[in-house]
Amino acid sequence: MELVEKLLSGNKRAAARLITLVENKDPKAFETLKEIYHKSGNAYVIGITGPPGAGKSTLTDKLVKVFRKRDKKVGIIAVDPTSPFTGGSILGDRVRMSDLNLDPGVFIRSMGARGHLGGLSESTQAAVKILDIYGCDYIFIETVGVGQSEVDIVKTCDTTIMVMVPGLGDDIQAIKAGIMEIGDVFAVNKADRDGAKRTAREINMMLDFSKSDWRPPVELVVAIDNKGIEELFEQVEKHKSYLEESGQKEVRRIENCKNEIVDLVQQKLMDMILDKSSKEEMINKLSKEVAARKTDPYSACKLVLEKLRTT
Amino acid sequence: MELVEKLLSGNKRAAARLITLVENKDPKAFETLKEIYHKSGNAYVIGITGPPGAGKSTLTDKLVKVFRKRDKKVGIIAVDPTSPFTGGSILGDRVRMSDLNLDPGVFIRSMGARGHLGGLSESTQAAVKILDIYGCDYIFIETVGVGQSEVDIVKTCDTTIMVMVPGLGDDIQAIKAGIMEIGDVFAVNKADRDGAKRTAREINMMLDFSKSDWRPPVELVVAIDNKGIEELFEQVEKHKSYLEESGQKEVRRIENCKNEIVDLVQQKLMDMILDKSSKEEMINKLSKEVAARKTDPYSACKLVLEKLRTT
């Protein structure tokens, strides 16, 4: 396949084309990925996540520039939230505003979920492989929100930077509970605002309960003014060294592969359940019966499972 | 079962006990739910969601008080974020701070995910049924974040209030894209802050593209000062009337039942995949092979699916 040769020679358009095919769930694209998968595994994957309004895009831009100064080839995957009911992403094709767009050593891509339930995770993971084989030294995955889909994506990363911000109110307690085990490095962005040090202190207090060998650092940064970015870079590199020297990188990658396999199996099973054939018809019929209280959802579930096993 | 009789007679402790059993995935609790499911369907379910820091808890409290003034029996389920890697919720047992705790006509419960992948959705849906049968007129489900798990939960509601807040920065575009189809009523909370009107205007602009018969209203509120809460209540009642008069309530409830059945099937299948037996062993072995590039995740997925079908 010509596309593969171009990709292996570091052709940007070929990478973009293959990612589009993957987003469109083209079976041939996945066949291709199967064939070249063994060439992946060289890129280091960094996740950047945190609540809305934390300034993740700006921080990613500034951090990428530090890697570029060291002449590293970088890929950025900006994950846009789903429009879950139609399955389409309004911002899926949005061009991310950044002067990095002009840098030939940077590949930027926005991705939205086109499918249903977990499809975003599948295509994001495929895009990581493509950018890896394309030759990126570092791949950044930037994602908005604090939910399961974000967690699924973060599970594919080597190092995850959790971006926090002062002024999240009471929800910071809840967010912290949800993210404690996700962040390898914490950044409190907009640190020129009131309450930044308090936010950092609160995060540090939570992290003190961590039982991991790696104690995540908490950096104060003002991304827009480029303050604290070099220090953040250093922390990422420190975490990378820790993973490599402790053997944890291999452990984590095996765990990530497991998550990916389980996600894929789940996705395929969902496709089977909602395959527009007799099963969806059966579910539609059962839904009406459950709504009318003629049966209950647990009995309905059992019937669907039996049907799945026998067809 | 004595517990059932107590629940049917409106005993608060019985409701709390049954929800705990459901959270602990006690099979007997689900058997009980199957038996009494036909008695559910009377409560009206209201989802309250939005990004972190939007002040959802305060808004819920104030809104519930409006319903209480009309002598409605109310249930509140506060969904806490997951700690996805351990499967436990740090805040799962947190007692929600509210003077509503003292009101005998209000049942408050915080719920966190104890299981893996979708378990929160399953137990939340079960809790809704229990509070419905217990006799609540209205059930509020309050959830933090903007992700798939939130969307799953919102799918069980009749009316969903999307709480926004000024100052979310660029992310508001992304959030809006993700939530446009979730909100039936929008509240811009903390409307005494700069930019509130602009936020409302931006949401209205997005909503103008909506093709639904119901055009979601956007209300400016200051929950902490109790401003705009009566107006918000009116909008919820309007949406309720719209659903009832248009026949959309039935359509939506059938759709919700479908989502619940599909969620349950997915959950059971996941339990089967990770059932600690030969399948998990197989996945662990495959994960190592994928990490070592001896095989690829897509081929691994296929093998697991075949195993699932033949055992």
What does this structure look like?
Two copies of one chain form a homodimer. The first copy, chain A, is of the alpha/beta class and 311 residues long. The first copy, chain A, has two domains: 38-261, Rossmann fold (3-Layer(aba) Sandwich), CATH 3.40.50; 274-310. In chain A, 51% of the residues lie in helices and 13% in strands. The first copy, chain A, is built from twelve helices and seven strands.
What's the gyration radius of chain A in Å? 21 Å
In total, how many domains does the architecture of chain A comprise?
2
Q: Kindly provide the name of the CATH class of the largest domain in chain A.
A: Alpha Beta
- Mean pLDDT of chain A, as a whole number? 83
What strand line-up does the widest sheet of chain A have? 3-2-4-1-5-6-7
Low-pLDDT windows of residues of chain A: 82-95
Number-wise, the strands of chain A total 7
Report the span from N to C terminus of chain A: 35 Å
Helix content of chain A: 40-55%
The succession of helices and strands of chain A, N to C, reads HHHEHEEHEHEHEHEHHHH
Individual helix count of chain A: 12
Label the structural class of chain A. Answer: alpha/beta
CATH superfamily of the largest domain in chain A: P-loop containing nucleotide triphosphate hydrolases
Largest sheet of chain A: 7 strands, parallel
